[in-house]
Amino acid sequence: MEYEIADLKYGLNCNVWSITARVLNKSDILTFNNGIGKRFTTILFDKSSEIRATAFGDNVDRYLSQLQVNHVYNIKNGEIKKADKAYNNTKHDYEIIFNSSTIIERSGATNIPSYPQLKTIENVFSMVLNTLIDTIGVIIKIDEPKEKNGRHKLRNIILADSTGSVAVTLWDTKATDFNANEGDIMSIKGGKIIEYKNVKKISVTLSSKVEINPCWNETLDLQNWYKEFEKKKLLNLSQVSVGSQELHMFEISQSFRNKTEYERILQQNKIDEDLISKRLLELNDEEHKIKTERADLNFKKQRLSIERESIKNHLEN
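Above: the chain sequence. Below: its structure as C-alpha cells.
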C-alpha cells in the first residue's frame, strides 16, 4: 500500500508498504561492535514529513550505492519501528529498517519537494516571530545596500511567489556580496521571521543559506509562473518600490492576509478582469489593423488585375 511518510505508522504491522521520497542525505558506512558490525543511515522526505532509514550488515552493500542525495525513489517494504530518539533527531515518531525484502527503484515523480518543510511565502505572515523558515521565490525588486547605525550593511529585496510577496533583509557580507538579478529564483534555508513597523519579514542571518537559481523542481515552476505574471504586473499592483515613502509591497501583502478569503478572490477576479479587458483591447486593435491591411491588399490586388487586363488588351490591339 502506498503511504505518505507522515502516515507510515499505519504500516507498522505490515511488511508490504511503499513510499515515494527524496533523499535528503545519507551517511558513510558506520561501524560498531569494534568494527564487526556496519550500518548506514539516510533521511528521506516527501511533502508530508521526513523519516530516517537505516540498513545493517549485508543490506549496507545492497542499498548504499542505490541511494543518491536529492534523487527520488519508490521504496517498498522493510521494517517500520518506533524511532529511538537517542539517535534519531527527525520529527517522525517512527523509522525504517531496510531488510532483504526492501526494494528501491528510481522514480520520475515530480510532486516531491526539493527540500523538507519548504513553505510558500504566505506562511510568513502566520508564523511566530524568531522562528526559522525555508522558502523559495522570484526576486522582483533589489534595493541598493545601505548602512545601519554606522556598523552594519543591509540590503532589502522583495521575494514573491503565487501566494504573495515578502521583504527579505540581507546583512553585512550577504548584503554587499549579493549577486543576483530581478527575475532570478532565490531559495532561503533558515531565514528568521522578524517584524518591522508591525509587518513580518524574513531576515537572512549568518547561519542562513541562500542559493540563486537552485536546481529544484520549484525553480522551474516559479520561472513559468513569473512569465505568466511578470514583474510589471506585480509592481503595478503594489504601486510602490523598495525604499519609497509609500506603503511597501510586503505591507500590502500583509494587509491581504487580513482580508477574508472572499475579498481576496474578488480582488484577484478584478485584477484578472482588468488584464483580460486590456488584452481584448489589444486584440481588437490588432484585428482592426488586420482588417485595414486586408482591405488594402485586396485593393492592390484588384488594381494589379485591372492593369494586367489593360496591358493584355493593348498588346492584342
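The longest strand covers residues 185-196.
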